[in-house]
Specification:
The chain is α/β, with parallel strands linked by helices. The protein folds into four domains: about 5-85, DnaA, N-terminal domain (GMP Synthetase, Chain A, domain 3, 2-Layer Sandwich); about 125-280, P-loop containing nucleotide triphosphate hydrolases (Rossmann fold); about 285-360, Orthogonal Bundle (Helicase, Ruva Protein, domain 3); about 365-455, DnaA protein, C-terminal DNA-binding domain (Chromosomal Replication Initiator Protein Dnaa, Chain: A), CATH 1.10.1750.10. About 55% of the residues lie in helices and about 10% in strands. It has helices at about 5-20, 20-30, 50-70, 85-95, 110-115, 135-145, 165-180, 190-205, 205-215, 230-245, 270-275, 285-300, 310-315, 320-340, 345-350, 355-360, 365-375, 390-405, 410-415, 425-440, 440-455, and strands at about 35-40, 45, 80, 155-160, 185-190, 220-225, 250-255, 280. The strands form two sheets. It has a five-stranded parallel beta sheet with strand order 5-6-7-4-8, with helices on both faces. A three-stranded mixed beta sheet has the order 1-2-3. Helix 1 packs across helix 2 (about 20-30). It is flat.
């Protein structure tokens, strides 16, 4: 044993606790003890009570352990965790471990012992989810869903645009629920995977097994529900699954990129079930939240120095979602680490120019409606009204036209935002305005002015 290396383990452990979060660290790494360090091979050996825990830590945290050790002792080449366990102890460990998924890459022996184990990323826990006004409802509701006590609202429906933290909260719910309910059956899957497995079960004549597995879940978490839009048979099976789980007092969490009422092509009965619990929006992250997220990430990397003006640059330019913000930070730090460049504002402006261009906020239908109403001096309620007088109908058609031109929304989606109008009404409006722009120079100029106001 190298005495100097032994004294470093508490510092390594404290850094990992900050990086992974207290709950994940205490569950897996707190019982780990330093064993030895071989100066010839550069191998650090750690010990834990069970072989199962050792295998799990090596697989899930091996790279993090190596990086943490090398920051304090550069000569370290690898880290190995060893352990041993009796049969009785193994059963206890399996019962209390967080659950890896039937589709996850857990060790073969673990999957054989429990084919419904759930795989998760230990970084995506509640301790690492930064809470602010824009996401506090969703965060608190997610914590309630994972508690021992029966949640007040069930199902929980989380909705937001891409990269705002929905999947992070799903994973956090799964981890906390597994800790609070050690013997529970938890299934986390994308709605697309639900659809593919359902279709595969139908074609393979294995529907009974498919139904039985899902209905055995104590907690079912479905990600990106919008991908089953228009799939009638899949929706019907999902509806029956939800009904059975709710009747049995099980818990359900669903995420999507829009509220239930905005899911075109989804059966009314399914929309009713999804809306029957709590619908929690996650809004675009405010400035304070984006800065706190960057500071949190940098706290886990004490060797990296990022000036305040670079942090401000990231906060100012990456406003749309957290994933883009973190991606920009990672790109900048990776470039600096691989080239030896110093992180400063000039480097950020040079290396992130393309990211900044692609991160510019997208125009929404609501913004278009406000801009059109401001130009024509109308109340925004007229966009959804039934009035057909020309002074209202023409601006409404212009707004529909711009919604189709400037947003990725479909005709039915646009119609919903304009008082629940049919998609054929939107198509007619778009074609009418397109034709008028060719013959009516005044209208063409008005539309150009509205577009400039939106771009500014």
């Amino acid at each position: 044993m190298n005495a100097d290396a032994a004294t470093l383990w508490p510092r390594v452990a404290e850094g990992l606790r900050r990086d992974l979060g207290a709950r994940t660290f205490d569950h897996w790494l707190k019982p780990v003890r330093f064993a030895e360090y071989c100066t010839l091979s550069g191998v650090v050996t750690l010990e834990t009570a069970s072989r199962f825990s050792a295998n799990w830590i090596n697989e899930r945290f091996g790279e993090r352990l190596e990086l943490a050790w090398r920051q304090l002792l550069p000569a370290v080449r690898s880290v190995s965790v060893r352990g041993g366990v009796a049969a009785a102890e193994r059963a206890t460990v399996l019962a209390s471990a967080p659950l890896p998924s039937f589709e996850a890459s857990a060790p073969a022996a673990v999957r054989a012992a429990n084919p419904a184990l759930l795989g998760f990323d230990p970084r995506l826990c509640f301790d690492r989810f930064v809470v602010a006004r824009s996401n506090i409802l969703a965060a608190n509701a997610a914590r309630r869903m994972a508690m021992v006590e029966t949640p007040q609202f069930n199902p929980l429906y989380l909705c937001s645009g891409t990269g705002q933290g929905k999947t992070h909260l799903l994973q956090a719910i799964a981890q906390d629920y597994a800790a609070a309910h050690p013997t529970a059956t938890i299934i986390l899957m994308s709605a697309e995977k639900f659809m593919l497995e359902f279709v595969g079960a139908m074609r393979g004549g294995d529907m009974m097994a498919f139904k039985a597995r899902l209905r055995a879940a104590d907690l079912l978490l479905l990600d990106d529900l919008q991908f089953v839009i228009g799939k009638n048979s899949t929706q019907e099976e999902l509806l029956h699954t939800i009904d059975d789980l709710m009747t049995a007092g099980k818990r359900l969490v669903v995420t999507a990129d829009r509220p239930p009422a905005m899911l075109d092509g989804v059966e009314a009965r399914l929309l009713s079930r999804l809306s029957g619990g709590l619908v929690a929006d996650i809004e675009a992250p405010e400035d304070d939240l984006r800065e706190r997220i960057i500071r949190q990430r940098l706290t886990a990397m004490p060797m990296v120095e990022v000036p305040d003006d670079v942090v401000a640059y990231l906060v100012r330019h990456f406003t749309r979602n957290i994933r883009e913000l973190e991606g920009a930070l990672n790109k900048l730090l990776a470039y600096a680490a691989l080239t030896g460049a110093r992180v400063d504002l000039a480097l950020a402006e040079d290396r992130l120019a393309e990211n900044v261009r692609s991160a510019r906020p997208r125009i929404t239908i609501e913004e278009i409606q406000r801009a059109v109403c401001a130009h024509y001096r109308l109340d925004k309620a007229e966009m959804a009204s039934k009035r057909r007088v020309r002074a209202v109908a023409r601006p409404r058609q212009v707004a529909m036209y711009l919604a189709k031109e400037l947003t990725p929304r479909s005709y039915p989606e646009i119609g919903r935002r304009f008082g629940g109008r049919d998609h054929s009404t939107v198509i007619h409006a778009v074609r009418t305005v397109e034709a008028l722009r060719v013959t009516d120079s005044e209208l063409d100029a008005e539309i150009a002015a509205i577009r400039r106001s939106l771009n500014n």
